[in-house]
Amino acid sequence: MLSQSNEMFTDREWDVLFLSLQRLSCKEIAKWLAIAIKTVEVYLDNIYRKAEVHHAHQLRQFCQEKVSIIIFLPNYYLLVVRSLAFKTRRQSDVL
Question: Rounded to whole angstroms, how far apart are CA atoms 52 and 13?
Answer without folding.
Answer: 15
